[in-house]
Amino acid sequence: MSAPVIEAEHLRLHYPVLSMRARSLRNAVLNRAVGGRLLKAKHETVTVLALDGISFTLEEGDRLAIIGPNGSGKSTLLKVLAGIYEPDTGRVSVRGKVSSFLDLSFGLEHEATGRENVKTMLRLKGLKKDEIEARIPEIVAFSGLENYFELPVRTYSSGMFARLLFSTATAIDTDVLVMDEWLSAGDAEFVERATARMNAMFSSARVAVLATHNPKLVDTVCNKVLVLEKGKPLYFGLVKDSPGNF
Ligand SMILES: Nc1ncnc2c1ncn2[C@@H]1O[C@H](COP(=O)(O)OP(=O)(O)OP(=O)(O)O)[C@@H](O)[C@H]1O
Fold first, then answer.
1. Model pLDDT, residue 109
2. Residues of the chain where predicted confidence (pLDDT) is lower than 50
3. HEC string for the chain
């Protein structure tokens, strides 16, 4: 059997939420009340434990749904898988090129044109100049932006913006697809084409991971599920063997 595509072992991650310094007004009042003793705690940070002991392995062909209530750690786990966040402890190894769609508009410049922004986004994804040039005609065509492609993105409607980001993000070859909800954006005509493209990408990736609140997607496009609650794993395994309905 070939090596797993994703191995996550005992992942834990805390977010710093409030430093004692950030609570300065409350601090000042408190500090006076306790006669200055709070100063001793000035470097302390209040944290939230967003991931607590997450382990799983995904093989070639697996389609994982991550489900759980708001704040259960889904997006945080996706960011760890995409290499955006480092876990505090534990280890994640991903074999292959990851497309995450989580940081789509990262680096976007509002005064720059659609074309210039596409180049920047692809460069940030690690593509070389000739690879970028080769992809642009298809991105222009799929986005349907026509002349708007040459205008600053500050002139775009939100639908146009979504077209630009989606067309660019899905123009990149990927081994491992990591998504926060199913991407679809824009007007009805574009949503139809975008959905078809998402389906194709989702089924052609070696491994795909989707965080979702949509039970229908879990049943129809995924074979495995990880159920999170307050950052802890409640269940990981095959959708067909999982307890409860989504
Ligand atoms: N940047 C941040 N700073 C501090 N705390 C954060 C940050 N991002 C998330 N959290 C906290 O971490 C926990 C997990 O959040 P996360 O966004 O991963 O949950 P989620 O399951 O994706 O939620 P949702 O379904 O609402 O998108 C929550 O308690 C949240 O408040």
1. 92
2. 34, 37-42
3. CCCCCEEEEEEEEEEEEEECCCCHHHHHHHHHHCCCHHHHHCCCEEEEEEEEEEEEEECCCCEEEEECCCCCCHHHHHHHHCCCCCCCEEEEEECCCEECCCCCCCCCCCCCEHHHHHHHHHHHCCCCHHHHHHHHHHHHHHHCCHHHHHCEHHHCCHHHHHHHHHHHHCCCCCCEEEEECCCCCCCHHHHHHHHHHHHHHHHHCCEEEEECCCHHHHHHHCCEEEEEECCEEEEEEEHHHCCCCC
Residue 41 in tokens: 């705690």
Assess if CATH 3.40.630.190 describes domain 6-96+210-241: no
Give the Å distance between the CA of 71 and the centre of ligand 1.
Answer: 5
Ligand 1 centroid distance, CA of 75 (Å): 7
Residues of each domain in the chain carrying CATH 3.40.50.300: 6-96+210-241
ipTM for the whole complex: 0.98
| pLDDT score for 32 | 63
Is there a contact between 215 and 137 (Cβ–Cβ < 8 Å)?
A: no
Closest CA to 182 of 62, 65, 50: 65
Question: What confidence score (pLDDT) does residue 43 get?
Answer: 57
The predicted-structure confidence for 73-90, as pLDDT tens digits, reads as follows 999 999 999 988 999 999
Ligand 1 contacts CB of residue 48 (under 6 A):
yes
Span from the CA of 47 to the centroid of ligand 1 (angstroms) = 12
Q: How far apart are CA 177 and CA 186, in angstroms?
A: 21
| Ligand 1 atom 12 nearest Cα | 50
